[in-house]
């Protein structure tokens, strides 16, 4: 973190300075509401279209819109042309990620087949939403993250069902292990991608295109973005409260099972993020792109995993519980990794860029270059 950025920190609001605390409060509030308010989980679950929960979709839209509005879409071609970056991300997300989750599920849950299957499904659902917030909080390259998330979205539609068949039926058969069938519609996956990534991406693109065309880039980045920035935090907290309220009773009534499921997830997040950062360092990626690659590889699409588990195995199944535990572990784990990432920045080369904030809170309240001169991402 640069000295100028550090000097700007005291100007942050209490809400921004204690972001980790508020995320923890939101998780606890959701669990308590789901446990104590009769029928709340059923009421929230009923507000959906197909397999898409409207409250969660609303929260993710509000959360992701400011992040995607900050992306400079005219620079995406520069990232998309970086073949090395795309290949690294595809290998981490679609080869190593699912294989690692498969191995951890079988090693740590050999006696719990339903939870094991649920974790394999979680490993196949690559993140296309919340990872953009974690990347921005860690001062990663937002254009790179947007391209990598878009690539994940395409692969998710094309490869999710195929990989599910491979990891639940083919590979276990080769290894002499128990097999499980996974019947999932490509169209339901496409619908999830459209809602959780397509809508906020289109809104962010149109905001920048119209704002720059009518008022110019300086006005858009120094006046408009700071006004919508706080919505990212409120959307994140709302999403966490709703998500945990939906599953509060289930999580709190089976603590030992939750602990068993949480262990392989914790190992998974640590290995995927840490391994991705090391690979990026070995390939001499700058900090900003290493961060984008690593958080994209470590995150999972919990909403898709839960929807698939419920649709295929039932709402009360062990597979569904494994999907529910996913965000319970992922949210605090990746928040912690944001702090680790900012600490590890000193071991990477930085890419000079005048528009990059020096602190994670700049995501929520973008700071103009005049306020933080020389800040780099």
From TrEMBL:
Its main location: membrane. It comes from the Bacteria. GO terms for molecular function: antimonite transmembrane transporter activity; antiporter activity; arsenite transmembrane transporter activity. It is found in: Cell membrane. It is a multi-pass membrane protein. Keywords: Arsenical resistance, Cell membrane, Membrane, Transmembrane, Transmembrane helix, Transport. It holds the Pfam family SBF. The chain crosses the membrane at residues 18-37, 43-65, 85-109, 115-134, 146-167, 187-207, 228-249, 261-280, 292-314, 320-344. Gene3D superfamilies: 1.20.1530.20. Residues 358-377 are annotated as: Disordered. GO terms for biological process: response to arsenic-containing substance. GO terms for cellular component: plasma membrane. NCBIfam families: acr3 (TIGR00832). Belongs to the arsenical resistance-3 (ACR3) (TC 2.A.59) family. This is Arsenite transporter, ACR3 family.
